[in-house]
Amino acid sequence: MGNTYSQLYIQIVFAVKGRENLINSTTKEALEKYISGIVKGLGSKLMAIYCMPDHPHIFVSIKPDAKISDLVRDIKSNSNKWMNDNKKSNGKFSWQEGFGAFNYSKSQKEQVINYVVN
User: Fold this and answer.
1) Fewer CB within a 10 Å sphere, N or C end of the chain?
2) How many Å apart are CA 88 and CA 81, to the nearest integer?
3) Distance CA 85, CA 110 (A)
C-alpha cells in the first residue's frame, strides 16, 4: 500500500496531583499553547484543548504509529517541567499518575470539540 490514511481521534484527560486547582486564568492560555506545541512536535494534530483549574482536556488526531501512552507521557513530563521552570504555580507543580483516553469516530468530532472548548 503506497499511502497510509487514518482517522484516530482521542480525547485525553489527566489531573493535577491531588486535584489541586493550580492552573489559574493567567497560566491557562500559556499552558494550552505549550501543550499544543508538544502535540504538534510529536506529529499529532491538536483538535481542541481546554485547561480546567485541576485538569486539561486534550482532543487530538494521532498518527497511526503513535502510542497514546508515549504521547501522554511526553505531554505530562514536558509541561510539568515547563510549569516548574517558569514558576507558573505556587510551589512545586506535578501531574497525578495515570490518565484517561477515549476514542471517537469522525462523526463525533465536532461534538467532542464543542464539549472540550465549552
Assistant:
1) N
2) 10
3) 35
Whether residue 3 lies inside any domain: the answer is no
- E strands, 62-111, are 100-104
Q: How far is CA 11 from the centre of its chain?
A: 8
- The answer to pTM > 0.90 is yes
Residues across the chain: 118
**Domains: count for the chain:** 1
- CATH code at position 26: 3.30.70.1290
Residue 43: inside a domain, yes or no? yes
**pLDDT tens-digit map of 46-103:** 999 999 999 999 999 998 889 999 999 999 999 999 999 999 988 889 999 999 999 9
Residue 76 resides in a domain: yes
What are the DSSP calls for 11-71, one per residue? EEE--BGGG-----HHHHHHHHHHHHHHHHHTT-EEEEEEE-SS-EEEEEE--TT--HHHH
- In the block, which residue shows the cell 491531588? 18
Residue 28's nearest CA partner among 16, 39, 17 is 16
